Amino acid sequence: MKYPKKVRTYCKYCNKHTIHEIEKVGKGKQSALRWINRQKKRRGKVGNLGKFSKVPGGDKPTKRVNIRWRCTECGKAHHRPTWRVKRFELVG
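Request: output the structure for the sequence above.
Response:
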């Protein structure tokens, strides 16, 4: 899917429609202090670990797009509910 780099849309901080620059956001590194990571470390010994077992899962055919809208006037960014798409490309 091709999507424009700049879109005129509503900014909840300016309280009006402005031009927004769109950035594709990658997934950040997960913290080692998160509860699930500490649980994996605790239970990660020997044998079948139930929900942590190494069963081949495979990826889904489509991924949910992670986009950040940044207002060109106030410089603040916000997220919105997005959609699933195989390929995502910012153009123009």
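The longest strand covers residues 16-24.
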